[in-house]
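call fold target=Copper transport protein
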Amino acid sequence: MMHMTFYWSKKVTLLIDDWRTDSWTSFLLTLLACVIASVFYQYLEDRRLRLKFISSRKPSPMSQIQTPLLQSKLTDDGTKLGVKFAGAILFGVNSAIGYLLMLAVMSFNGGVFVAIVVGLAIGYFVFRSEDDNVSVFLENPCACA
């Protein structure tokens, strides 16, 4: 039976029927996996935002004047397409991880909830709390956006 309220127990079924915990060791390893997945989510989000920020910067007019032969439209379009494709792949993977984290929280186990929130906070602190233009570029606390 699925829980519809938060409960605190070492017995939890997470994401698939075969991922069941029945001992403290398996429960703690599950919580560690939740923390690692949450930190990885924040890492990928940071990479995606940095890629988007770097690709949105316009070259300075001085660099175009100094190197006019290196400014090829074909190269720019190919590079932009590659950056867009890489951004789309990162967005897809990150969205999938975000939805899996959301489904893990929907197990309503208090330990899983706390582990995911702690992992997201650790990941934010390590990867996304720098004071640069990337954090100003786009800041969205939603785990699935």
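return ok
The radius of gyration is 20 Å. Residues 35 and 119 are 4 Å apart (CA to CA).
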